[in-house]
Amino acid sequence: MIVQLVPGKKYGFEGKLEASYSTNSNSNNVNVANAGNLLGLSGNISLQSRNAGRQGIKVTHALRTGVELNLNARPNAENFINSSDVGYNLTFAFPKLLLPKNLRDYFNKNKKIDNLYSKQSFISFSASNTNRIGLFRLNSFGLAGGYEWSPRPNKTWSLKLVNIEYSNLYNRSLAFDSTLNENPFLRYSFNTALVFGSTLGYTWININPKHPNRVFSLKANIEESGWFLSILPLKDFSSINKDLRSFIKGDVEAIYTIKKSKSEIAYRGFLGIGVPIGSGDTTLPFFKQYFGGGPNSMRAWPIRGIGPGSKPLPTYNSRRLSDRTGDIRLELNAEYRKDIWQMIPNTLTLKWALFADIGNVWNFKNTQPDGSYDSTQFQFKNLYHDLGMNVGTGFRLDFNYVVLRFDFGFRVKRPELSENGGWKLPSIGFDDLWGKLFKKGNNEEYRKWRYENFNFTIGLNYPF
Fold this sequence. Notes:
This protein is mainly beta and 464 residues long. The chain contains 8 helices and 16 strands. Strand 5 (118-132) and strand 6 form a beta hairpin.
């Protein structure tokens, strides 16, 4: 056998464009988060050197920038830009496990390292700035180091021995502070916070050998913060103790897909639980909390638009912050996809989809200062009532390498409603179908109906 090797390119460049659109407006006011029909655009570019130091070390520079536009406002209005984000990431990946000599000798003796399908050690640094117009600014910094290895081609482990994240919240507006004071479940989340801990992740992809059209994938992650620093004498570092958030968090996601020649059905389940364990921590820091809604979640709600628990929605046209996050997230999704028309052979296919989503987010602890009943806290006896559910349909333009997705989601069970267990079909008929879904202008009745019952999203690629 003769093996011929061709040198790979030393440098690699990659560019990505992402877009999402969500309509569920409740106001045109400047100081309302998620106000209007929101169009999100983001770009990601990365440059990679694959052989730094002639040792096969990969060095990756990645730049991300994004903007969220309020299409209900005029382009020259103050609230046309809802938020902006820019971030940079630097990663070094070494093609071996960098371990102390005694550990390396132990693993090599048992042939556990040599038999690995792949392995690498990594160090990464990140920095970003987020500007929520009229609300706050957020500077974030991160540093992580650890290992990634695959015992088999379909199994991958990832361990971050050190994971440090610091987020500084500043330039808080009066409207934002007043909203936090009125809503304790938000007050404990939105703060300057330091995360110092470790994470462990596992990915498994299984293709049924008897039925190769059936694919099952499993992702699991567990993360902790505060344990290591808690055992160190840091009494002189009051600023660290003040901002350090202690918690343990774990989540698991399972996806099962059955593919046929011209159709496909996909199921997804997600469960995530975060437990704040710091003496003064009532919730996880907001950048570690879960949220639902948007193109890849509960599609009849906008991003961060559902929950927590049975917390009532802000009244239509209110000026209150509408972000909804929680320490617990439960979600089940199902989607049927069908080829309709091959518009361009081997290039563009029009597909139709029918989907259903059920789930919500909750807080783990009681967030009421006086300990009274908290509608945002998870309680098993309220699980059925707190679950939201939507059904919907959509169309996909499949270009083989990318999918452009249009989804129409309708809420059939709303957790904020007390009557009839929250079940309520959207009141819509053929005579007002177009008006309620798409009519613009100052028709307050249609706009309020969309805010309470419907969401239209545009996304790239499949939701799961």
